């Protein structure tokens, strides 16, 4: 095996997916697993499909193409690039949209290819990331249902992404009522009312999801077992689906404060040091080129991450009961950002169990 590595326990991922399918299913809400954090690796996404997921979603067309081997519809989460319209018609079943010009291009391409492309209209309820402003949504829907080659199958929203707005009965209630208004006014059926991401789960537990919301797109909740509005653990889920592993290349006792005049570190930041005396420090062959170092937590609770440069990470192991040696592997939990970086780094070996 090569290090650094990230190990994936698919059984735990399957289990997390099934817990969430049950929990949301009881309220009539379907969950769509979001695969972007692990770069859409089909071997991993398969675990969620085995748990019963009926669709998969990713932000990038490259990942959606990788997922082709799995026989479920794919949703494109990021608003399409005009330059990718052809690829989207060919590879994506449903895309989330907010721009008329893009939807019109998708319509033309779909028509050329003799296909019907499904669209979810994204509505901005105040978080200020993507979406048609909520006051303009009903009118906007009218313009797109007239276009051939595409089918408006639903509406959706994204919260807690840019503005940090927390989903509640009021904002999601507005989404549901806009869906209703569009259905009545234009005499059509919207099968999807997509009420956001892992930050909407707290409403599921409190049974406060407004009637009409029937879908959530879940990334972090499945991979890390977190709801993301308040950062709580989701009861019964595994938080250790992923394990980051790096190898010790130096182990020495050294002072905790450098000797000499202190300038800036390799990243142009002026480091600060606390004098804890002589400490036992492990240097690991892993650094900022492999992951986001402030998003990791050693599994050995007595180990302390003290810093990192591009390819070295320093861990204080003085208080650890385990007697570490050069060549030993240390294990870490990762937060969402660190997980994203580790999967994206070509230097990190992906090990699928
Ligand atoms: C990433 C993403 C999600 C999933 O977000 P989580 O917080 O990981 O659940 C859902 N919807 C959209 C549009 C996204 O980009």
What order do the helices and strands come in, and which of them pair?
Elements: E1 5-8, H1 10-25, E2 30-33, H2 42-50, E3 56-58, H3 61-66, E4 74-76, H4 85-91, E5 94-97, H5 100-112, E6 117-124, E7 132-133, H6 137-145, E8 150-156, H7 169-186, E9 192-194, H8 201-205, E10 215-218, H9 220-223, E11 242-255, E12 278-284, E13 296-298, E14 304-308, E15 313-316, E16 329-334, H10 336-344, E17 349-352
Parallel strand pairs: 1-17, 2-10, 3-4, 4-5, 5-6, 6-7, 6-8, 8-9
Antiparallel strand pairs: 1-11, 11-12, 11-16, 12-15, 13-16, 14-15
The protein binds pyridoxal-5'-phosphate.
Residues 34, 36, 59, 77, 158, 197-198, 217-221, 228 line the site of pyridoxal-5'-phosphate.
Q: Could you explain the architecture of this structure?
A:
- This protein is 27% helix and 24% strand.
- It is of the alpha/beta class.
- It folds into two domains: 9-223, TIM Barrel, CATH 3.20.20; 242-352, Lyase, Ornithine Decarboxylase, Chain A, domain 1 (Beta Barrel), CATH 2.40.37.10.
- Strands 1, 11, 12, 13, 14, 15, 16 and 17 form an eight-stranded mixed β-sheet that branches. Strands 3, 4, 5, 6, 7, 8 and 9 form a seven-stranded parallel β-sheet that branches. A two-stranded parallel ribbon has the order 2-10.
- It is elongated, with a radius of gyration of 23 Å.
- The mean pLDDT is 96.
- It binds pyridoxal-5'-phosphate.
- Pyridoxal-5'-phosphate binds next to β10 and α9.
- Pyridoxal-5'-phosphate binds at residues 34, 36, 59, 77, 158, 197-198, 217-221, 228.
């Amino acid at each position: 095996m090569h290090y650094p590595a990230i190990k994936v326990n698919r059984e735990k991922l399957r289990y997390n997916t099934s817990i969430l399918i049950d929990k949301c299913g009881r309220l009539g809400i379907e969950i769509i697993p979001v695969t972007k954090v692990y770069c859409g690796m089909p071997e991993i996404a398969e675990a969620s499909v085995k748990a019963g997921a009926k669709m998969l979603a990713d932000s990038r067309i490259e990942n959606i193409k990788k997922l082709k081997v799995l026989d479920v519809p794919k949703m494109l989460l990021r608003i399409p690039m005009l330059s990718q319209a052809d690829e989207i018609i060919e590879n994506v079943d449903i895309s989330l949209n907010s721009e008329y010009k893009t939807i019109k291009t998708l319509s033309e391409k779909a028509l050329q290819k003799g296909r019907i492309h499904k669209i979810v209209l994204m509505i901005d309820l105040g978080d200020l990331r993507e979406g048609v402003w909520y006051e303009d949504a009903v009118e906007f829907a009218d313009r797109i249902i007239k276009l051939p080659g595409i089918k408006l199958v639903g509406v959706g929203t994204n919260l807690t992404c840019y503005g940090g707005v927390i989903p509640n009965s009021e904002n999601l209630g507005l989404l549901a009522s806009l869906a209703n208004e569009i259905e009545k006014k234009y005499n059509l059926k919207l099968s999807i009312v997509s009420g956001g991401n892992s930050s909407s789960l707290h409403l599921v537990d409190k049974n406060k999801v407004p009637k009409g919301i029937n879908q959530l797109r879940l990334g972090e909740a499945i991979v890390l077992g977190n709801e993301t509005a308040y950062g709580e653990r989701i009861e019964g889920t595994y938080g250790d689906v992923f394990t980051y592993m790096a190898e010790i290349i130096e182990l020495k006792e050294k002072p905790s404060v450098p000797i000499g005049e202190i300038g800036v570190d390799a990243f142009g930041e002026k480091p600060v040091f606390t004098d804890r005396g002589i400490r036992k420090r492990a240097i690991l062959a892993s650094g900022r080129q492999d992951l986001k170092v402030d998003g990791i937590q050693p599994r050995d609770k007595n180990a302390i991450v003290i810093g990192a440069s591009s390819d070295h990470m320093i861990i204080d192991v003085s208080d650890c009961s385990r007697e570490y040696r050069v060549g030993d592997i240390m294990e870490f939990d990762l937060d969402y950002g660190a997980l994203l970086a580790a999967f994206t780094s070509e230097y990190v070996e992906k090990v699928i169990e």
